[in-house]
Amino acid sequence: MNFENAKISIFYGSQTGNAQDLAERMWRESKRFYFQSSVKALDDYNVAEIVDERCALFVCSTTGQGEEPDNMKMFWKFLLKKNLPGDLLHNLK
Ligand SMILES: Cc1cc2nc3c(=O)[nH]c(=O)nc-3n(C[C@H](O)[C@H](O)[C@H](O)COP(=O)(O)O)c2cc1C
């Protein structure tokens, strides 16, 4: 298969590094197949760009009492906003 130049964004939320390790492994693997890929913590991402994403992988752990890791708290809060348009992620696989 040839995925050359296909864009894929890989995001992680990770408290102690396991989800981050996995996301980075997926990123390295995606490079082997010539994806145009990126990997970053969810809170390092400018959420305004999400409307332009077409394909994304989210690798997130839970911590505490099933809570989101610290480095995805802003993103999680954003996703839970009541006034987000219902079709916000319509084009996102
Ligand atoms: C303090 C603590 C709390 C945890 N709480 C949960 C939890 O509520 N639900 C769950 O499924 N796993 C829980 N886990 C397991 C973690 O999700 C698991 O260890 C995961 O691999 C951690 O990934 P990370 O290193 O990316 O944060 C917890 C682990 C720790 C250390």
From TrEMBL:
GO terms of molecular function: flavin adenine dinucleotide binding; FMN binding; oxidoreductase activity
Domain Flavodoxin-like per the UniProt entry, residue ranges: 8-93
Domain of life, source organism: Eukaryota
Pfam families assigned to the protein according to its UniProt record, in alphabetical order: Flavodoxin_1
GO cellular component: cytosol
Keyword tags: Flavoprotein
Gene3D superfamilies from the UniProt entry: 3.40.50.360
Entries under InterPro entries matching the protein: Flavdoxin-like, Flavodoxin/NO_synth, Flavoprotein-like_sf
PROSITE patterns noted in UniProt: FLAVODOXIN_LIKE
Name of the protein: Flavodoxin-like domain-containing protein
